[in-house]
Write a structure and sequence with these properties.
Helices cover 0% and strands 46% of the residues. It is built from no helices and eleven strands. It is globular and about 40 Å long.
């Protein structure tokens, strides 16, 4: 099992950018990594996922073209670069890890979760 800690959330204007970070307690090479988010009154939503060596990336339809996920296994870090932010992106963002081979869009397939970091997009 790996422990995950997110950081980088905050308040940003529409159209702005923000970078979220996820620090892992151990080497991340053994895990598929993903970001999920949950807005008030809504279910948890898949945002982005990346394969073990970073060669495959996947995005939810609502963020495709605006967000970018990346990982640095040497530093045990995963990042989410968020650009062209919209008020609809306001949510608590969670880092997650699973030991499977493929990225899953289902939150139930991930066994390890961070505590979450809040992102508010507002003018």
């Amino acid at each position: 099992q790996v422990q995950l800690v997110e950081s980088g959330g905050g308040l940003v204007q529409p159209g702005g950018s923000l970078r979220l970070s996820c620090a892992a307690s151990g080497r991340t090479l053994s895990y598929v990594m993903a970001w999920f988010r949950q807005a008030s009154g809504k279910e948890r939503e898949f945002v982005a996922g990346v394969t073990r060596r970073g060669s495959g990336v996947y995005y939810g339809d609502s963020v495709n073209g605006r967000f970018g996920i990346s990982r640095d296994n040497a530093k045990n870090m995963v990042y989410l670069q968020m650009n062209s932010l919209k008020p609809e992106d306001t949510a608590v963002y969670y880092c997650a890890a699973r030991s499977g081979d493929a990225v899953s869009r289902s939150w139930n397939d991930y066994d390890n979760w961070g505590q979450g970091t809040t992102v508010i997009v507002s003018s």
